[in-house]
Amino acid sequence: MKTLICSLLLLVLAGSAMARDLSEAERTSLHGQIERFDAAFKASDFATITGTVPPKIFEAIATKSGVTADQLRGALATQMQMILASVKFLKFEMDQKNIDYEQTASGEPYVLIPTLTLMETEGKKIEARSYTLGLIDGGQWYLLRVDDGKQIGILREVYPDFADEKLPAGSMKEVE
After folding, report:
1. Residues with Cβ < 8 Å from 131, sequence gap 6 or more?
2. Orientation angle between helical segments 149-158 and 55-65, nearest 10 degrees
3. pLDDT tens digit at each of 176 positions of the chain
4. Do residues 96 and 31 lie in contact, with contact meaning Cβ atoms separated by under 8 Å?
5. Nearest partner of 143 among 50, 42, 80, judged by Cα
6. In this structure, are residues 100 and 81 in contact, taking their beta carbons and an 8 Å threshold?
7. CATH class of 22-175
8. Nearest CA among 70, 63, 51, 72 for reference residue 140
9. What whole-number distance in Å separates Cα of residue 128 and Cα of residue 120?
């Protein structure tokens, strides 16, 4: 029994030792990345928008699709232009005041940013509430939508630390 208690205590202490809070520089960098994304979204700057997605995610999708990451980025930019032709974005907001600071089981920090998108298409207003995942890779913050099952699957494949992380579902509804 004593051995079991000691083992459990070591596991708890080891888990605590691996976990870490964000540094002030990491927090500043995160907020800068969110602001860059927000400005790029409002300006339809697709190069900056796609640059906020982790390169490893692009590589994984490109490999599965049989194209290069650059070809994938180009195709994504084209798709975004087509979407913007049929959808009018009325509001886009990443709520920096209510960021949820989390850590994976191995202690890697990440954030979930409440995200609101209000759009109009075919005369209907649609409100999408979701979360944007912020993760650090190679010392840089990247942003990724996590309300799409395929994207979550690729995230978990590319970043195994997220395999057991519960990611919140988004919602979409028609509004007046």
Report:
1. 100, 112, 113, 114, 115, 146, 147, 167, 168, 170
2. 110
3. 343 233 333 333 333 334 468 999 999 999 999 999 999 988 888 889 889 999 999 899 999 999 998 899 888 888 888 887 788 999 999 999 999 999 999 999 999 999 999 999 999 999 999 999 999 999 999 999 988 888 899 999 999 999 999 999 899 999 98
4. yes
5. 50
6. no
7. alpha beta
8. 51
9. 11
What does residue 147 show for φ and ψ, rounded to 5 degrees? -110, 10
Domain boundaries of the chain, sorted by first residue: 22-175
Structure tokens at 159: 């970043």
The one-letter code for the residue type at 98 is: N
Nearest Cα to 96, choosing from 131, 46, 144, 52? Answer: 131
